[in-house]
Design goal:
Helix content is 40%, strand content 19%. It is built from ten helices and 14 strands. The chain has a seven-stranded antiparallel β-sheet with strand order 2-6-7-1-5-4-3. A hairpin with a 3-residue loop joins strand 4 (123-126) and strand 5.
Length: 410
């Protein structure tokens, strides 16, 4: 099976190369906005869609020839993709790009060996730019085929290349063990609580540097807008934000790798983090946790490792349901961090009980999927593929008896 993997490196372009990179950023933005405007105008007049290419603009705007033509072509593809997403009702109507946007990038493709990677001279050769100094902190395997390169600029004025590769890989053969399973319940204060009663207590990197950010922003507010001092101060603030983002990403990468290597089944809720941050006044905590990024890391690492990720519906009453007797406490509120079941007299920790219920529901969903969905191919040596639900039933009975942090009033 073919997979894609990107390798990101920092580059150190010369002054002339920086000018050309910035020109390419500007040209791709111009083409995107011009094509979008022409499409809108043409549709308003003729009620038909307009099909155009960047080449049709080069006669009128000669300076477009100075930059990489593949970068302009990829901009057209990005606009077409935005239109398709809009018509399929997966996104909003495309917006114009602003030159004040802090995220700047363009993509070029590998054609006839126009992109060359040289580890000895620590450089990379790109169309129009030539050889650029590059810091290779890891090597790309020889059997990986380079497909494209994205040149980007960070808000702290650092330049990077992201090399997209394609490679052949088979999912590793594994006999999955349902006893090596875990359920994760989202927690704003500690990222998640698992079905074993463990709380991660992830460091809140934004909160740790919040006072420093406030101090630097106060300094910025007293400076003249777009002056030299204003730009220097803005760069200081961007560096703090970059450090926070790097710390968070590093922590989530290590944690997701540990979970994927330790468990065969990982069940979690398919919650809407945007709604949580807006409706429950938990914006800072939700964004600081990066739980959405954490789920993405888990998904792609689990696919490569052969681990199963099971998403439970967000409306499943994981917190309100007793995992011992399945009693539902309808009047449970967010303020209630623990509650006692009136049927079995078991006192539950809210988050731990939810994590156990998520795991039980995830295993049940996976078992039903194995038995009913013939479109999914499973390993015939795996008892799950043979329709043997004994592993699931045994694990569910085990979870029903499991009470690591509970106290019984009976």
């Amino acid at each position: 099976m073919k997979y894609n993997k990107a390798f990101k490196y920092r580059i150190y372009p010369s002054d002339s190369q920086v000018i050309l990179i910035e020109k390419t950023f500007g040209c791709t933005r111009f083409i995107y906005n011009k094509m979008l405007n022409d499409k809108i105008t043409y549709y308003e007049k003729n009620k038909k869609s307009l099909h155009i290419t960047p080449a049709s603009y080069k006669k009128e705007y000669v300076w477009l020839k100075e930059v990489d033509s593949l970068a302009l072509t990829n901009t057209q593809l990005q606009l077409d993709k935005a239109y398709k997403a809009f018509f399929s009702k997966n996104n909003r109507f495309p917006k114009y790009k602003s030159k004040h946007n802090k995220k700047k990038s363009y993509t070029t493709n590998m054609v006839n060996g126009n992109i060359k990677i040289d580890y000895k001279s620590k450089s990379i050769t790109l169309p129009k730019l030539g050889s650029i100094k590059c810091k290779y902190h890891r090597y790309i395997p020889n059997d990986y085929m380079v497909k494209s390169v994205t040149v980007s600029k960070s808000p702290t004025n650092k330049y990077y290349v992201s090399i997209l590769t394609e490679y052949e890989n088979d999912i590793p053969y594994r006999i999955l063990d349902s006893n090596k399973s875990i359920g994760l319940d989202y927690s704003s204060s500690s990222l998640y609580v698992d079905s074993n009663g463990n709380s991660i207590n992830m460091p809140h990197y934004y909160r740790l540097l919040e006072e420093r950010l406030a101090k630097e922003n106060r300094k910025l507010s007293h400076m003249k807008l777009h002056s030299n001092n204003w730009f220097r101060q803005q760069n200081k603030i961007n560096k703090i934000h970059e450090r926070i983002a790097n710390q968070r990403k590093d922590y989530l990468h290590k944690l997701s790798t540990k979970l994927v290597n330790s468990y065969d089944y990982i069940a979690l809720e398919d919650i809407n983090l945007k709604n949580i941050s807006q409706s429950l006044h938990l914006g800072k905590s939700t964004d600081d946790n990066g739980f959405g990024m954490f789920r993405d890391f888990l998904s792609y690492k689990a696919e490569l490792n052969g681990t199963k990720i099971i998403k439970v519906d967000k409306f499943y009453p994981s917190s309100k349901q007793c995992h011992i007797c399945n009693y539902k406490k309808v009047d449970l509120t967010l303020k209630d961090r623990s509650w006692t079941c009136p049927i079995c007299n078991t006192t539950h920790n809210r988050d731990e009980n939810a994590a156990i219920n998520i795991l039980k529901e995830g295993l049940r969903l996976y078992n039903n999927n194995c038995l009913s969905d013939n479109s999914i191919i499973y390993n015939t040596n795996n008892p799950w593929a043979k329709g043997d639900s004994s592993l699931i039933l045994n694990s569910l009975e085990f979870l029903s008896e499991k009470r690591p942090l509970q106290t019984s009033n009976s």
